Amino acid sequence: MVDPSVAAPHSIEEFVKGYEEGGRLRGLRCANCGLVTATWGLACSRCGRYPLEEAELSTNGTVVAFTIQTVPGDEFLNDAPYAYVVVDLERGGRVTGWMPGVRSDEELRVGDPVHFVPSYKPGVQFAKGSGSPGPRPEEHR
Amino acid sequence: MRETWVAGAASNRFGKMKETAREAATRVSMEAIRQAGLEPKDIGYTFVANCLGIADHQGHLGPLVNSGLGIPEVPSATVESACSSSSAALHEAFVHVAGGFLDAALVVGVEKVSQLDTLTATSYFAIGADYAFETKNGATFPGLYATLANAYSRAFSTRPEMFGAIAVKNHANGARNPHAHFQKEISMETYLASPIVASPLRLYDCCPFSDGSAAVVVVAKEFLRSPVTEPLVVRASVRSGSVTDMHDRPDLLGLPATRTAAEKAFRQAHMEPKDIDFLEVHDCFTIAEALAVEDLGFFPKGGGARVALEGTTVRDGKLPVNPSGGLKAKGHPVGATGASQVVEVFEQMNGFAAGREVPRAETALVHNIGATGGSCSVHIFSRR
What CATH number does the domain containing B71 carry? Predict the structure, then answer.
């Protein structure tokens, strides 16, 4: 009998652990159409092919679109204003993240290079310029 | 497929409700049923839309509404599709009536959120987005549409006044709608002076958190009983979907779910955009109205932000858009919004829209988006 189950290369929890503790962005690649994404799924959201393959995403990219969040949600209450960014990563994959300390439209431009940085705050965090993620900072809350 | 009709439609005043969601939903349901010339016992099924019942300590509204209507034995279910919940419920009603499984169905949407503080409301409203891959990375609901506005403004070199004109227009319409949350006009100066919520979106680009309820009665021809109201023929009832995360779509310059729903709806109705007299579209943010009128096929890409400023989409313009005031001014009680858009069409075509009438309206298209376009409904209605 055929095994009907399909496995994902990693879980959402493993994705979060990857960026929180491992300093890496774990992604998924479709062997059929080439879609690369961080967004979890069993099958490709573009062409439907499954299963997907594990893809190690670059931690460097450029800003595609952004907003300055003045009125935040509850998990970012003490961090506003900050930038919410859509980022095209080198070697493929489009992800979202946030940039603490970017407080106005004048401080960021579409096309600017950014790089992923590990953090104790929630979410995928980016900083200006290209660079390596570096170690996770000491926890200070 | 049987010919299917909207025989009754009713709404309360959006804004802040004193009564519970259950009371409001039951009252507008009774009104819509009686407007249709029917009695509650004629209803074969109740499709409820209520996204944030948890905010009011009450889920499972269907049996409560039906019991309050004196028809506890009538089956019910809640349909959830974020901001497009009640248009999704309407589609369910359409499918059942058109398919011959029901003769008369009640669709009722309701939301009560005004008791929440802004922080809690902001977090609740974000639940239609992708928590793990958008919200957790810092996006609020306005933030996601702001990202679209950022990309759009860059691609088409917009000016703030273009989006301001959408807000000014919808407030002018809402000022003439007794159901509207905001019944006051605003000036371009007021728009431009309002604070930034998520750049480039200002406060007056955003719809409010509203309480409200709206109901629609969907029937087969044999159940057209009202001697006083004119029913609407449902020419098309279409749902579509798209990848939830905006950043996983081919581009940030439109909502693909709107495009596919519109194409299917025009095919189903055997109509083209030029056959439509006015639109009720999903303007949770001004950018959303600009995208909607483009993606629905009425204006070319980049044109949607200009048409309000040019006067094309005002109430007596060539193609009126959101004569109700839209989500922007009428308000956005999430689960009630889709049904309330149909209420506007019903009132326009029945001459109940005094003061905001669209001249010579025979056909209308209604567009309702779930969250940032993971879901979409398009309905087309016409007079008999």
Answer: 3.40.47.10
Q: What's the start-to-end Cα distance of chain B, in Å?
A: 17
Residues of B in contact with A38 (CB under 8 A): 133
What is the b/e burial string over B284-293, where b = at least 16 CB atoms within 10 angstroms of the residue's CB? bbbbbbbbbb
**B147 and A75: CB-CB below 8 Å?**
no
ipTM confidence:
0.94
Asked if A96 has any chain B CB less than 8 Å from its own CB, the reply is yes
Q: Rounded to a whole number, what is the distance in Å from the CA of B302 to chain A's nearest CA?
A: 17
Consecutive H or E run containing B103: none
Tens-place pLDDT, residues B22-67: 999 999 999 999 999 999 999 999 999 999 998 888 999 999 999 9
A74 reaches B (C-beta below 8 A):
yes
Query: What amino acid is encoded at B179 in this protein?
Result: H
Which structural domain range is residue B26 located in? 4-116+209-223
CA distance A20 to A29: 21
* Annotation: CATH topology of A60-128: OB fold (Dihydrolipoamide Acetyltransferase, E2P) (2.40.50)
Nearest-angstrom CA–CA distance, B5 and B104: 9
Annotated domain spans of chain A? 12-57, 60-128
